[in-house]
Every structure is written in structure tokens, then in C-alpha cells.
Amino acid sequence: MPLILGIDTSCDDTSCAVVSNGEKILSNVVSSQTADHAEYGGVVPEIACRKHVENIIWVIRKALSDAGCTLDDLSAVAVTRGPGLVGALLVGIGAAKAIAYSRDLPLIAVNHLEGHIISPFLVSGVEYHFPFVSLVVSGGHTSLYVAKQLGEYELVGRTLDDAAGEAFDKVAKALSLGYPGGPIIESLASQSDDDCLTFPSPMIKQDNYDFSFSGLKTAVLNYLRFDLQITSSDEVPDRIGPDLLERICAGFQRAVFQVLIQKTLRLAASRGVFVLALGGGVSANGALRKAFSEAAQKTGLRVIFPPKSLSTDNAAMIAGAAFHHLEKRQFAGLDLDATPNLAL
Ligand code: KG4
Ligand code: ZN
Fold this sequence. Notes:
Layout: E1 3-8, E2 13-20, E3 24-32, H1 34-38, H2 45-67, E4 76-82, H3 86-103, E5 107-111, H4 112-118, E6 132-137, E7 142-149, E8 152-158, H5 164-174, H6 181-189, H7 214-227, H8 236-239, H9 242-271, E9 275-279, H10 286-298, E10 302-304, H11 308-311, H12 316-327
Parallel strand pairs: 1-4, 4-5, 6-9, 9-10
Antiparallel strand pairs: 1-2, 2-3, 6-7, 7-8
Bound molecules: 5'-O-[(R)-(carboxyoxy)(hydroxy)phosphoryl]adenosine and zinc ion.
Residues 112, 116, 138, 280, 313 line the site of zinc ion.
């Protein structure tokens, strides 16, 4: 069984994993930098790079020891080449090259988005079922694909401005809630009764599969500014009580989820596809999972989510995605460079 070591340093998590045969996760170590970025309300690229440099060696060592293997047991080394922060990507790429060169192992360059697409299938008993509709919904991307086979993903729609996760983070910042915004907004929204505020679900009526979340973020900011006369996030804790805060969060979250669910189901129906797979940090959200499952059930569709540990950034999905590249002998050279805006 080929063992692939995967490395992901695309954003603010340093991660390394060992995956057997493209399906069985033997280890998946994620060192989060959330605490280092929290006071800035978002990821600071310079800090992310330095933290990756500090962490990469022990994270790789731990991934090998958790998997009970050594570098001698590996069949290949896989690494995220993009998209992501250039300096952050380069730390993982440098480490992967060093291992590949010193052990004479094939080097596999993986698109981070392919990792998110295949992440729901890295669970025992969950088989690939092509074609499936994939919704990648993360801090950097909100994209809809029809996955036809491994390595063949048709991009059908994407966000025209902010990603859904980015909107969660920006709204959380405006509400003085902290970073990352997704889990905090989820938790506050879950306390709200049915009486949540109503915000518009952008582009929901448009006959296409694109998204836009920057207007929704502005709608929340306008509500704070014009309805509540709040001009700075510093005023929020004194001016907005827990009840209203929960209703704002629930209304915002509902508006995001309505458009995600409607467009994904519409795409599945138009292509006659019966399996939906979600990936990316926002897919960790329990309310999204519940609403998606209920909507899918009504139309007889099957929806698959990654476990929460595989929703947010991780290297298991990189090692998992690398397997079909290994089979096809699609290898990178030691001149591999980071591609920050790599598309898929
Ligand atoms: O996939 P990910 O870890 O990194 C990227 O590739 O971007 O996604 C991070 C994003 C952040 O914007 C974060 O706020 C969001 O995922 N997120 C969530 C939740 N957990 C993380 N959004 C909504 N609900 C959550 N529970
Ligand atoms: Zn990601």
C-alpha cells in the first residue's frame, strides 16, 4: 500500500499527514496559529510564514511518528503548491523538496482546492461516486464544481467577490467578536430563536451558479451604522445586548446558507447528479450541515460532509488527493515554485 506524506502550509495552519492508498489516514497533525493572528482580526502573512518555519519540522516528525512509520516507508511526498499565501506555501514546498531530494522520492504538487474537494471521501466506508457536485466553501473560496472523476473538476460557479468564510470573518470583526469569525458566529446564532433578522441572500434569484457575499457583509454593516447608529466595532459590546447580537448572527448566517444550498441543489438537479460533497472551513458549521441535509433529503439527494477535522485546512486531504497523481506518475520537479493564485 503506497504511503504518501502530505504537507499543507497554504494559510495559517502548519499541517502534515500520512495517508495510505489515497484513502486511509494514518496521521494528520495540524498546528493552528489562530492565537497568533487573533489580535489582528485576520491572518498576518508575515507572522504565518515565521510560524510555519518554527513548526514545520516538529509537525512532520509527529506525523511520521503518529503513523508509526519513517521516511524510508514513504512512496512519495505531496505538498500544496497553491492557492495560498506565497511565503507560507514556500515553507511547505521547501520542506517537501528537501525530503524528496534526500530520499529520492517523487514530489507531487497538489492544488489545495482539490484537497477540499476530495476531503469528504477520506473516511472509511465513504466511496467516490462520480459524477458528484462539490461545494468548496472556505475562507478564500466559494466554488461549485461537477467532479467527473479524480483530477477532472468542472468549475461551474464561484464567488465574484468575498468568499463565504471571509464574510463570516469580516462580519465577526465588525461585531467585535474575534477571529476566526465562523465558529463564533455559529455559536451565537445557535442561541437565537426563530426571530432572527432578515438580510438579503445575494444573487439567489440569478440564473447562474455564482455567488457574492460582499453586499451581504455591507448590509450587516449598514444595519449597524444606520439602524443602530454604531460607527465603530469598539462600540458594539456596550451598545448591542446578547439577544440582538444572536439575532444578527443568525440572520447573517441564514442568508449565506440559503444561497449556498439553493444554488448547489439547483446545479445537482440541472445535471442529474445525486451526490453532493462539501469541503472547506465553512462546511464545519453544524447549522449548515443540518439545513443542507434537510434540503437534500427532500429532493432525494445524498450529501456528504468531511469530519470537522477535515473541513478546515489539513494535510490529509493533500496526501489523499496526491494518490491519483502518483498512479498517473504526475510528478513535480525540484524547481517547483509556489503558485499563490493557482486556479481550479
Ligand atoms: O478551509 P479553511 O480552514 O481555510 C481556507 O482554505 O480558507 O477555512 C477557514 C474559514 C474561515 O473563514 C472561518 O471563519 C471559516 O472557515 N469557518 C467557519 C466555521 N469554521 C471555520 N465558518 C462558519 N462556521 C464554522 N463553524
Ligand atoms: Zn483551505
